[in-house]
Amino acid sequence: MNKNKLSRRTFIRNTSLIAAGTVAGALAGKGCAAAPGSIERVVKKGRDPLFVAADIERVVKKGRINQSVSRWCYRKLTLDRLCAAAAQMGLKGIDLLGPRDFPTLKKYGLVCTMTNTHGLSDGLNNKKIHAQCLDKIRTAIEATAEHKFPNVITFPGNRRGMSDDVGIENTVAALKQVAGYAEKKKVNICLEYLNSKVNHKDYMFDLIKWGVEVCKKVGSERVKILYDIYHAQIMEGDIIRTIRTYKDYIGHYHTGGNPGRNEIDETQELYYPAIMRAIVETGYKGYVAHEFIPRKDPLTSLAYAARICDV
Fold first, then answer.
1. For the whole model, what pTM was predicted?
2. How far apart are CA 46 and CA 55, in angstroms?
3. Average pLDDT along the chain
4. What value, to the nearest 5°, has the Cα angle with vertex 35 and ends 31 and 39?
5. Is the distance from CB of 79 to CB of 101 less than 8 angstroms?
6. 120 φ, ψ to 5°?
7. Distance (Å, rounded) from C-alpha 100 to C-alpha 269?
8. Residue 109 and residue 21: Cα distance in Å, rounded?
9. 3-state secondary structure of 94
């Protein structure tokens, strides 16, 4: 079983992160030295990577890309430690959290850049669970709006033999029931594009045109696409052209290195500085969240990603 796939799904089902905090506490007592040759010594030599924020240098200087980071990729750090580090680096928020985490974000001056809702494989293409999914979306919108945060996530779910046309019809029918509420609350509902080749077998929204068609048929400025660059590279590639072509339908971005969904450095095939420049050129003002699983010292890798994306 693909570990990345399992980790993402497990995290979506349980946003409490109690287990993650327990692991982080155990690790903090042991201490871990930063990897030798850390990029620009962003995490200072000889210091524990589970440090206080004062030990990190600010790497975001230009700020034309509003950067955040997905929580589930850093579950070895407590949310407090991740928030402190992110704020010091110059990131604006944390992705994929629930309302119980909002007070911690506020403490560090951060926003929840994407709020969790329902599950990933059972979603809006299934009429039988529309009521269940929509209830979770409305609850998330209410909490997100209360804190003046921007986005909630949603998924069409797996195909299970369903055609694209029927999937679009069912997903549109569901989103039309909640789009008005999102407009009233000024919160975006972002439908995530995932790959069905490596990580999420049978997932329905695995080509950009499928999501664009849903957005067109719903016809709401608050229903957008979460364009995950890692997943899109696996399925279609042509990242920069796609961003330029469908910019009006994209409400959020995720990063990740391919192959492997690891660091966005020289070990993988995507060149993120060029991708970020293309995003800036579209006039995009939303968030780009780093959603890669670090193989190296996690905060050194995050700081490097933040620096190269600060175009």
1. 0.84
2. 11
3. 87
4. 130
5. yes
6. -90, -40
7. 37
8. 21
9. strand
